[in-house]
Amino acid sequence: MKKVLVIYYSQSGQLLEITNNITKDLLADSEVNLSFYNIKLKEDYPFPWSKDVFYNTFPESFSQTPTALNDLDNPLLKEKYDLIIFSYQVWYLTPSIPANSFLKSDIATTLFKNTPVITIIGCRNMWYMAQDKMKQLLLNLDANLVGNIVLTDRHINHVSVVTIVHWMMNGDKTKRYLGLFPLPGISQKDIDTAIKFSPTILKHLKSGNYDATQEELIKQDATRIKPFLILVDRKANLIFSFWSKLVLRKEKISIQKREKYVKLFSYYLLFAIWVVSPIVFIVYLLAYPFTAKKRQLDINYYQRTALK
Question: Do residues 128 and 61 share a domain?
Fold first, then answer.
């Protein structure tokens, strides 16, 4: 009997639906014992979000500051597994606070040690640097990352910004913003067809050999790489690092200072999305003929599970 643990945190249910499809063959197999563990926080985040809470989550999210968790004495966390599937969201270009907090908990130290791990990401579009951070977290736990599956919103960057914000603030994925924009989030077609990854995972689970897992998942389009978004992700991480440190530094003076600088960050974020990002895209297009080698190196790297 192969034992598999799925660990997840899903606010809207989208990521859980994706995970259920990807693990469908494992659940149906009589030789696999599949268990699900839902990460629980002592103080959970709201869904739908309010603007104040959303922006106020930024400094701790980007700085990967863990928060207190519940249910860490769950018997599921005391077992040893043949495979762990870790499903996570991306918050501010970083693994979400619930995901980060769990991986920094004491229980994760023994749970993940010397264990194969497959990560599943459900996000808007920029997941590259977040997965680098995830790789480091798993490396710290002596875990063995053997696969990564990413589902994203396929619409262009600025369209997906509008639709995801509308969804986050009203909680209804079935409504089109202004009746004109496409539905937000990952398409239902992509969610439904994610079942295609299930036989690949089951095959490697049963054999106990995960050497070619990621290679086979890539052939099934598990990681769609967009070099321009890698560029934006890297530059945004540098800027977010500055803002996160600034807000946390101001918090030491007073909570009012923190609130002031969080608000300033919210204004900057809008400016970066609607003004800076288009300029970066123009520069990217101008340099495109001269960056083929760099783009291919980036694609090759982010398709792999190794860190650097």
Answer: yes
